[in-house]
Amino acid sequence: MAELVILVDERDQQLGLMEKMEAHRKGLLHRAFSVFILNSKGEMMIHQRALHKYHSGGLWTNACCSHPRDGETIIEAGHRRLMEEMGFDTDLEKVLEFTYKAELDGGLTEHEYDHVMVGHFEGEPKPNPSEVAQWKWVNVDDLKNDIEKRPQRYTEWFKIIFDRFIQSVNV
């Protein structure tokens, strides 16, 4: 079954639906979300995308990102995808939204109206190996320094969202 994304305008008003790969090939603006997970030590959970992913395989990124389904709220979508990718769930709070555009490998473009959420978690995730190669907790300052020194290790969207996120939640 083809996965559909919700095409939107610059104000996040729904315009229609399109198959996910087609929207990424055409670089059309669509609704997305990003989930950041922090622990009580102020560390951020990041994961390395599975090597076989259709884009950005092997790159490090935030806890999870995806696209809501038609009729699904952003928070519902965040809970669903957190379970599918990382094997746990936690309370989520939306902290910001913005639009970005990033060129990816394979001739794909992420052009997303992104809703960013934060959650807190202390346990061990049970990541889905078809989504996640490995995961770790990392000090936010160390992560910021590593992104600056070795940006090629991280997904394009994570590099764009990271600074906005840490400023919005004062990590």
TrEMBL record:
Listed under GO biological process in this entry are: dimethylallyl diphosphate biosynthetic process; isopentenyl diphosphate biosynthetic process
**What does the record give as EC number?**
5.3.3.2
User: GO CC annotation: what is one?
Assistant: cytoplasm
**Keywords for the protein's UniProt record, in alphabetical order:** Cytoplasm, Isomerase, Isoprene biosynthesis, Magnesium, Manganese, Metal-binding
Entry-linked InterPro entries: Idi_bact, IsopentenylPP_isomerase_typ1, NUDIX_hydrolase-like_dom_sf, NUDIX_hydrolase_dom
Task: Give the metabolic or biological pathway.
Answer: Isoprenoid biosynthesis; dimethylallyl diphosphate biosynthesis; dimethylallyl diphosphate from isopentenyl diphosphate: step 1/1
One GO MF term attached to the UniProt entry: metal ion binding
Q: Does the keyword Cytoplasm apply?
A: yes
Per its UniProt entry, which superkingdom is the organism in? Bacteria
Nudix hydrolase domain span? 28-160
Which positions are catalytic residues?
Answer: 65, 112
Matches recorded under PROSITE patterns = NUDIX (PS51462)
- Which protein family is named in the record? Belongs to the IPP isomerase type 1 family.
The name on file for this protein is Isopentenyl-diphosphate delta-isomerase
